[in-house]
Amino acid sequence: MISPGFTRQMAAYNRWQNTSLYKAASGLSEADRRLDRAAFFNSIHKTLAHLVWADRIWLSRFGACDAPAGGIATSTEWLDDWAELKAARQETDQTLIEWTHTLTDTDIEGVLE
């Protein structure tokens, strides 16, 4: 069964993974991060921007933050600067961690509608 403690553990793991991923991506040149790699969102930068956007959409649905502007069509473009994207990832990870600390067993056992 999922518990509030488990959500906190997974949020911490998520931050650890993102820190590792962004460290690796920071080792690439700007051109390499933006290179079209024939992935779903084309480049590494656009994929990472979309993931921050998606996390914030979900966190906004849970009342933990405001939703990012725009929709899925612009989800890869809203954080065009690498430094801003890294900062947004760190902020989003912290928001997720803080949100998990508000959860109770009742919240976890409830129905998501």
Write up this protein:
- The structure is a single chain.
- This protein has 113 residues and is mainly alpha-helical.
- It has one domain (4-107).
- The protein is 62% helix and 0% strand.
- α3 (44-61) packs parallel to α4 (82-100).
- It is globular.
- The two termini are 19 Å apart.
List keywords for this structure.
single chain, 113 residues, mainly alpha
Indicate the topology.
Elements: H1 4-26, H2 30-34, H3 44-61, H4 82-100, H5 105-109
Helix pairs in contact: 1-4, 3-4
Per DSSP E runs of 2 or more residues, the count of β-strands stands at 0
Query: How much helix, percentage-wise, in residues?
Result: 55-70%
Q: Tell me the number of structural domains.
A: 1
Largest sheet, if any?
none
Count of helical segments? 5
Offer a quick outline of the entry:
With 113 residues, the protein is an all-alpha fold.
